[in-house]
Amino acid sequence: MSRKFPEKFRDQSGFSIIELLVAFGLITSIGLAASFYLSGQKRLYKPDDQTLLITDILQEARQRSLTQRETMRVEIDLTENHIRLIDENSVTTADDDKVLRVLPLHYPNDVRMDKRPNNIAYEPPEPLPVPSAVFAPSVYPSSATHQVCTLRFMSNGTVTNGGNNGTGDGAVPVGFTLYVWQPDKQNPNNSTFSRALTILGSTGSVRFWEFDPNFPNSNKWKDSRRVGSYGAAQN
Are 187 and 101 in contact (CB under 8 A)? Predict the structure, then answer.
């Protein structure tokens, strides 16, 4: 005996193959567009991420130097693409240096730090000029011959350069301006998105700067106020 379904069910039909393919195509297109947009946004924020990561290491180095009364060295290593925090322990020898932290940095095709981008002609407007960070062959065993920017946080609150050898002989207090920027794909020496950190040698204070081409001032570097005099987050 055949089984009869109610009339209302016999009149209903499902989606056709064509309708399903059209719906699937629309979902795929929307997904690809969203993925492309989000990947671009993620790349855009990499300079911010890297600047904040470096700020955290500088903050820790300064706090440790003051509380432990020892020299803390920060090495921004372009050769290995890492940043290191190192406790120098005894200042008379490099044999007891202790690496406290090593963190990876973004690849230079996404984020550069080796110099100020060519399309920005001026420094962040600190009251006194703060020279650009210098990357040079390291004289320390932890990074020998690598291209490194070396910052030494001293127990008296000052920041010095790396000096002339593995124990920091000849080091002098000096400020640093570290540019962190996204290179333009067509001209990798120009930036499309730029950030900067200024570190004052006399006090060790850190300031976070954003480059905003729409900023009304003639100097387009804008104090972000996201870090305070000790690198701490601000509201």
Answer: no
Inter-residue long-range contacts of 82-85, CB under 8 Å, 24+ positions, other chains counted:
83/53, 83/54, 83/57, 84/142, 84/143, 85/57, 85/60, 85/61
> What DSSP element (H or E) covers 66?
helix 46-68
Q: What CA–CA distance (Å, rounded) separates 88 from 95? A: 9
CB neighbours of residue 84 within 10 Å: 21
Q: What digits encode the pLDDT tens for the residues 128-174?
A: 889 999 999 999 998 999 999 999 999 999 999 999 999 999 999 99
Domains of the chain: 49-223 (3.55.40.10)
Residue 84 to residue 171: CA distance in whole angstroms:
19
